[in-house]
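Hi R.,

Here's the chain you asked about this morning:
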Amino acid sequence: MGCIDWFIFAEVDYDRITTRLRQYCPGIAGAVFGAAWWCWIDAIIYSAAVHGTGYPPLIYHLPGIVATLALIFINLISRDDLTNYTDYYSSGDEGSETRARCWLFFSYMVAFGAVAGGVAILVTCVQQHPDIIRIGAASLIQSGLILSSALLLWAFRSEDSGGYGAAF
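And the predicted structure, written out as C-alpha cells:
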C-alpha cells in the first residue's frame, strides 16, 4: 500500500529527491556530453570505413563545437546570479541580474543556433550527399545531446562543494 499512499496523499520528500539529483546529475550530464561526441566520431569513422567517403568538410564540425561553447557559456552563470538578493542600501551592483539574464539568453541562442546548424547539415547531406547522411544525422544528435547536457548541468548544480556535486 506504499505506492497507493504516495498517489493518494502525495507525501514526497522533495528535499531528498533534489539532493540526489544534485549529487548524480553532473555525472549524467558528463555521460550525455561524452555520448554526443562519441556519436559524432562514430559517424565519421563509420562513413570513412564503410562508404570510403573520407573526412567530412570542416563546416560539418561547427555545430558540435558551437554547442560545446554554449555549454560552457550557459554554465558560467549560476542560478544565484539571476536573482538579485542585494538590498538598495548595500554596495551591490544593481545591473548584475540583468547582465546575467542577458548572458544566459545569449548562451541559449548560441545553443539553439548549434541545433539549427545541425538541422542545416542534415538537410544538406540529404539533398547533396546521400552517402554521408549518417554524418548529418550525427551532427543533429550531437548538438541536441550537448544542449541536453548543458541544461542538466545548469539545472542541477549544487550550491556547495564548488557547485558541481563533488565532495572534496
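The chain has one domain: 24-83+94-157.

Let me know if you need anything else.
M.
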